[in-house]
């Protein structure tokens, strides 16, 4: 039962528009939230939607994926193996600034007489645009139009336009286009553990600044992490009233100041290109010299100046056309929901498109909360979308994890285990979680990553990836579980147990036999064993390489099979449910009636020990296991589990709603399915979790796609072929989505009484529709009847 409300209807703020989010008035009240939800990014660079004029703001600067500061974690009571080095994403210089002065009056949205204001984040052009009309006290009126994009194609590039038009009167206009180091904006520490740390030392240490023509380039070293970075801006100026231009640069600011004497009807336009380059996140030895990064900025800027705004904007649009071709979800009959779905998918696109060899942070690059860290959110909530819509990006994300394997091996040694233990949260690959109970103890992260490896391979058929990288990850993660658990002999034979771990639910920590962890670990052990056996018989060279890399012995594989076979999963005969862990049912039930709504999320109001003493759940745990592997539970068992855990689930984590929605849909609990879906799809647009201002919940955005495809689309993919059990909410006229399976595009269109499957490709594809096997032929739509009882009838949506 989610302890949240959807506050206000988002439609009252953002009018329905199928392909854009539009803000029609400047609302200082929602400053933090709109900075997040209108943010632009490409997975490498991200920028919150702060006004171009620099104020007002809550958090500003650019965020570069992986650009971080380090700091020693001081544990007042230290113990062996605790994480020692903290990692925090930092703000890079802000490239979107244009300060405007008309007759020496600065434009400031808070104080100016703003006659019209429209800001638009367009999901098809990938641009954030704004048009305002400003009337000065002298009566002079100017129109200011701006646009910005973070190139989804050119990883290191930001492009921005700023245009001033004098509508009546004569005016002396000055535009200062800036690249501004914003380190002075220390983050406040209000005690919310989800927010990023502030620093009281100079984080970005200047290493050089130069100005030349209309270009300035600044370079820096990050004080304690040692990372290096450079950024630069260059400009094109158009308009016939320009009287002066000056370009300067120092460690805090690069800028071009353009002065124009303008009369009614005249325009001044400035196009700015900005480039960012950094050293590797985990540089070994010396990081790249800042001068070399500055040279790279020059090359990025030279190319952009040569191509101009129009060409770069067209390239962005073409990228998004391809994106929507494979990723779009269309809900007919509910424009508000359709808009929110597309906004969510656009967010995932912005968080992943050019992450390349870096991870996918929990907030993407829309805010510094969670310190810019990578969690399991990527593998369980975001990767399924990428696997089915853009497998190359999924492969990049998994290769990035593979690159962390050595650090994970070291971490396993630090916690006295064999194999590899991936960090619960990190930027560099080293564990950065200081709170081990809800951090390092989440050993399920290994199995989550292995699950993503297997899903990627199964859906794409990319066996090379499995042989070259995946197998090594499976072996080392399986090794850890084999070493972590132990066999116990009983009357019914042997059982394998894993003690002292935390499952996905962070309100119950360091427990024995967490059902989710045990089930996922068993799958990890089995998958590792069968992958090794497959390599041995089918790909001997890859097998030999795997043995060299891992020193694998035959008896280990036998041990994994035995452990998987004997894996203990708790079951309560009286209730007929899966207890979350061995002792969960012994705990007292949380007093939901007695604790008022404003005391949620509990983590901000109760000592962890209080929370740990009760049956109260932060996020789906057993229910998540049922989503990932519905083949492990029969339908009645699923329904009993859901009915038991749902009332205990606070939804204090945004990762819960999608999973609750999907499982509710599968067990036929229509009202819950749509209720949770609504929470998930409006998580940020309606600020359901109350902290959208800290950044967009990327896992929840990925979860929206999961709920559509696996919930209402009814896809289960644990068998040999995709199996669809569509369930259409009664207030929707239809639902359509696309899946890329083994290189072929499958379109699924669900309407009230039928589902149409259309295959774009060369090969027939076998699927199941409501359990009935069917072979789809390329380019020949196959119409299947929909069983009427599967329509979701919401109470309200
Ligand atoms: O990874 C999640 C975790 O499951 C719940 N707390 C927030 C983290 C980042 O989203």
What is the strand and helix layout of this fold?
Blueprint: H1 10-13, E1 20-23, H2 31-37, E2 40-41, E3 45-47, E4 62-72, E5 85-92, E6 94-102, E7 105-106, E8 113-122, E9 128-135, E10 141-150, E11 157-168, E12 171-180, E13 204-212, E14 215-222, E15 228-238, E16 242-250, E17 253-262, E18 267-278, H3 290-327, E19 329-332, H4 335-352, H5 377-389, H6 391-402, H7 405-414, H8 444-460, H9 463-484, E20 486-490, E21 493-497, H10 515-538, H11 540-550, H12 554-566, E22 588-589, H13 608-612, E23 614-615, H14 622-628, H15 635-645, H16 657-666, H17 670-681, H18 698-712, E24 715-716, E25 723-724, E26 734-741, E27 744-751, E28 754-760, E29 765-769, E30 772-776, E31 782-785
Parallel strand pairs: 22-23, 25-29
Antiparallel strand pairs: 1-8, 2-3, 3-4, 4-5, 6-7, 6-12, 8-9, 9-10, 10-11, 11-18, 12-17, 13-14, 14-15, 15-18, 16-17, 19-26, 20-21, 24-25, 26-27, 27-28, 28-31, 29-30
Helix pairs in contact: 4-18, 5-6, 5-8, 5-18, 6-8, 6-9, 8-9, 8-10, 9-10, 9-11, 10-11, 10-12, 14-16, 15-16, 16-17, 16-18, 17-18
Bound molecules: 5-hydroxymethyl-3,4-dihydroxypiperidine.
